[in-house]
Design goal:
With about 260 residues, the chain is an alpha+beta fold. It has helices at about 1-30, 35-60, 135-155, 215-220, 225-240, and strands spanning about 70, 75, 80-85, 90-95, 95-100, 165-170, 175-185, 190-200, 205-215, 245. It folds into three domains: about 1-60; about 70-155; about 165-245, no CATH class. β7 and β8 (about 190-200) form a beta hairpin.
Length: about 260
């Protein structure tokens, strides 16, 4: 990864120098024919264009890892991969390709696991014969470390998953959902989410209700879990009046 960054910087520098040189040659050719103010304007535009090209090239190659908790021990990135963590193993999953570690927990390490990028030999079977470049191994290792750090922050209560609940439609009208706070329960398994539900009665009046729900993190982050949360909020709106609280229980699947 460090070597790739160096090569990118060198390439960007060469591009910048080439643009400046090209601009200089063009300026020298047309300068006798242009007034000073126009010559200065062209020089400024050429410099800004070079900066924009370099900035876009740099941003295109940057990796900013973000994750969502799918279920306990499983996080997913918008970049298209998942990281699955158990007590003794870690898996990086990209489509149907998997890289796995038999990782031993160790206190004080990132995500409470001790990992090494040198343990990445390539993809697991049946794709073990597919070549994997060194820079690709470094990218996978960095992604896994970021996922482990994200999980550790979740477990320590330093961050919480985003509550993506915006509105609920019911027989009593359309209600907007405005989250006020997210607090971790003492058992460290659930979250207490306090929200305000509002609906317009007419142009001058708004009905408002306050609801506090107890819900697991995995329900808030998975699409199916969010649908279940909204269904139970809808039922609460339709069957009760005023403010209240609600425990969101996962739907039981019958055998």
């Amino acid at each position: 990864m460090a070597m790739n960054k160096k090569l990118k910087l060198v390439g960007a520098s060469v591009l910048f120098i080439s643009l400046c040189a090209g601009g200089g040659v063009a300026g020298a050719y047309i300068q006798p024919r242009l007034p000073d103010w126009l010559d200065l304007s062209l020089s400024i535009v050429a410099g800004l264009a070079a900066i924009i090209v370099i900035a876009r090239s740099w941003n295109r190659h940057r990796r900013n890892y973000r994750f969502a908790l799918i279920r306990p021990g499983v996080v997913r990135s918008p970049l298209g991969f998942e990281v699955r963590m158990s007590k003794s193993s870690v898996e990086y999953i990209e489509g149907n390709h998997v890289v796995s570690w038999n990782a031993l927990p160790q206190s004080g390490s990132v995500g409470r696991f001790k990992l090494s990028k040198h343990e990445i030999k390539g993809w697991n079977e049946p794709f073990a014969k597919e070549p994997m470049a060194e820079h690709r191994k470094r990218e996978i290792f960095k992604a896994v470390l970021s996922a482990l750090a994200y999980r550790q922050l979740l477990e320590e209560g330093k961050i919480h998953p985003k509550v993506r609940l915006h509105r609920v439609d019911s027989s009593k009208g359309h209600w907007g959902i405005f989250v006020q706070s997210v607090v971790e329960a003492r058992n460290a398994e659930n979250l207490f989410v306090t929200m305000i539900l509002e609906r317009n009665i007419n142009d001058e009046h708004i009905e408002s209700r306050k609801l506090t729900i107890s819900v697991s993190e995995s329900q808030l982050t998975s699409p199916s879990g969010q649908n279940e949360v909204l269904a139970q909020i809808r039922n609460w709106v339709e069957t009760t009046e005023g403010d209240g609280s609600l425990t969101i229980a996962p739907r039981q699947v019958s055998a």
